[in-house]
Amino acid sequence: MEADKGNQGSPAPKKVDQKPSAKPMRTSKRSIKRRKFDDELVESSLQQASEATGTRKRNEDFDRLFKMTSGWLPTDDLALILAVQQTNDLESVYAGVSFSSSFTLSDIQERWYALLYDPYVSRLAVEAIRQLHPEQIAEIESKALWSKEEEKLLSEISCANLDMVKPFEELLEKHGGTFFRTRTPKSLYDHWLKMKHYRLLKDQKVQPMLHGDTLMSFSDAEEQLEKAEKDQQQRKDQLHSAIVRDDALEQDLNYIDRQQKRAIRRLEQDIPKWQTLVEGSTAQEFDSQTFAVLKGRIVRYLMRSQEITVGRSTDSFSVDVDLSLEGPASKISRKQAVIKMKPDGEFLFFNEGKRPVFIDGKPVLNGSKAKIRHSSVVEVGELAFTFLVNTDLVHSLCAKPAANYV
What's the pTM value of the predicted model, to 2 decimals? Predict the structure, then answer.
């Protein structure tokens, strides 16, 4: 009975109904595509157009910047800036400055305007110039063009001046603000010599030159040069109107233009050579030992033996008549010619150089000879000389037996 009571005191466990567990839901990270409304389509199209416009503008800016800076080195920019400061003339810069590339006048103008008005290009150029080595800057500054004010002060020094240092030191000390900062007395003297050579000093007078049978003044020569330039420009304009110009053709035309301008400058430099000096022999030209004189514009060469060599002296070779003392002699051979006096008093000119020599306008080729007389004009390279004979001494020697003077 007690056992039954004990069992009755603990209630029986209840049964729990267990439901089956639910399945997990499937998810996806992909966005649900839906059709866009009209206002969304318009906004998307505007955004794409704006991005395309911005990309195109950036490409155009890059192309423009590349075109402005293409080919120009920092040394070119520095040379351009210094030259414009000295001359204030882009045409003078184009004619006088040697850049790293063959830039045209339009290229120089575009680059100068970019340096002036384009802040991005000018900032890049200034930063690049600041990175140059001091030796590069000094070399460029030493080749700076000469301003009109500098040449005006140099032209006031007399052409009879023989002192190489003192007048130019005084001029540099007195007008230090006018001259460029790298000018030295030696550079002033060298440029003064060039001005003297081309007769640009105030106390020098330009002599007329012979042109055919009539005298032609410097103004006539300048008028002919201007006429040649006009004819050249007319031919160029006609050529431009007849063909379609492109980049390659533009380069060819600019090259031809530069070649013709160089030819004109060479003609201007050759003007002193065209002047024929015809002077009679005087007592001042000769002495008792001089057979003949080869007279240039600056130097007189005395012929005191029956045979002399004419040419260009070097460290390892010497001649009797060194033509480099007269002027530019780079186109003259070291042994250009030999002048001999025959027993009968005639003079012969033997050309032993590579280039022809002109005697009274007639060419004497290599290995050939020609007679040379009193007042004959001898043109060697870019130099011109007048050959003067001491007729009194030559006649007196010819009257004696050959053994007395050979």
Answer: 0.38
Q: Are 84 and 147 in contact (CB under 8 A)?
A: no
Pick the closest to residue 145 from 205, 197, 202, 81 (CA basis). Answer: 81
Terminal CA-to-CA distance of the chain, rounded, Å? 183
List the one residue out of 318, 338, 344, 345 whose CA is nearest residue 378: 338
Are 172 and 185 a contacting pair, CB within 8 Å? Answer: yes
Please say whether the beta carbons of 345 and 398 come within 8 A.
yes
Each residue's pLDDT tens digit, 218-269: 677 778 888 888 888 888 777 766 665 566 667 778 888 888 888 888 777 6
Tokens representing 350 are: 């033997």
Distance CA 246, CA 294 (A): 54
DSSP 245: -
389, 372 in Cβ contact below 8 A?
A: no
β-bridge partners, 385: 378
Name the amino acid, one letter, at 68.
M
